[in-house]
Amino acid sequence: MPLFDVAIIEMGPVGSAACILFAYAGLKVVAFERDKDVYALPRAVSMDGEVVRGFQRIGREKELADLLQPTQAGERFGFTNSKCEYLFGQGRSSFVVNVWPTLSMFDQPEVDGYLRSTASEHPNVTAHIGAEVERFEDHQDHVAIRAGDTSAEARYLLGCDGAGSMVRRDIGVVWVDLGYDHDWLVGDVAMKQGRAEALGVQHIQVCDPDLIRTSVSTKGPYRRWEFKLLPCEAREEMLEPERIQKLLEAWTPRDAYELRRAAV
Fold first, then answer.
1. What percent of the chain is helix, strand and coil (3-state, nearest 5)?
2. Which of 149, 218, 235, 238 has minimal Cβ neighbours within 10 Å of its Cβ?
3. The whole model's pTM is what?
4. CATH match for 3-45+107-170 among 3.65.10.10, 3.40.50.620, 3.40.190.80, 3.50.50.60
5. Which has the closest alpha carbon to 75: 100, 90, 88, 92?
6. Which residues of 74-106 are buried (b: 16+ CB within 10 A; e: fewer)?
7. What is the rounded distance in angstroms from the CA atom of residue 169 to the CA atom of residue 241?
8. Quick one: CA dihedral 186, 190, 192, 194, positive or negative?
9. Domain ranges of the chain
10. Interior angle at CA 207, CA 233 and CA 230, nearest 5
11. What is the DSSP letter of 232?
12. pLDDT tens track of the chain, all 264 residues?
């Protein structure tokens, strides 16, 4: 069995990016991803110029930058009162520290797909898509990984398997809970053609004690709203389309968008 330099568990954006950077550094990488397809719904929505700069060193910066939507002059980031009257915050900065825009918006399924395909196509990467890691064993000088009928050995193991990380649990790394346990309803929509302009472009936290909420202008036709759940609200009822549409009525008409994702 060949000994790889690095084994990576899960190929989300972090795992795939790690595959790419390790491979371009000349290391032999084996990666495991349980899902055959890229996760189709948006989660992360922005990245800074340092990410693009990291890909510049391997000559892939333009490919990544082409998937991004840099923030523009006039975009606002800040806090408002309950009437959405601006209180404080900042506008887009024209100052950049490394040529690339300080902040850009993106659509995660699009970027995720690019990263996974780029990683999988590199000759230094052996990617096992659809293989879920069941266990790994530490043999002092290497790690042995088992995923169904597939096994591999590597000098190092990198766990990129998210908040419920099996790797973190099995090596005994403690999850530190800082006590923020409030539930939020997150709604992602795709605005229909010509309907996004009426919303403007802003990223705001509405400081309304009766209903704390957030509005984010993500890439292209997409928008995200977040609503902090009240003590009397159950997560199941908040995920009903009618409830989400009612919350969004204060921002945009029901016929102006299509719901992409709702999650608490």
1. 25, 35, 45
2. 149
3. 0.91
4. 3.50.50.60
5. 92
6. ebbbeebeeeeeeeeeeebeeeeeeebbbbbbb
7. 36
8. positive
9. 3-45+107-170, 184-263
10. 10
11. T
12. 789 999 999 999 999 999 999 999 999 999 999 999 999 989 999 999 999 999 999 999 999 999 999 988 778 899 999 999 999 998 776 677 788 998 999 999 999 999 999 999 999 999 999 999 999 999 989 999 999 999 999 999 999 999 889 999 999 998 888 888 889 999 999 999 988 888 888 899 999 999 999 999 999 899 999 999 999 999 899 999 999 999 999 999 999 999 999 999
Q: How far apart are CA 218 and CA 189, in angstroms?
A: 10
- H helix intervals, the chain: 13-24, 49-56, 61-65, 108-121, 166-170, 235-238, 241-248
CA distance 210 to 215: 16
End-to-end, the C-alpha distance of the chain in Å comes to 44
Tokens, residue 223: 């928008």
Integer-rounded Cα Rg, in Å, for the chain is: 21
Contacts of 242 (CB under 8 A, 6+ apart): none
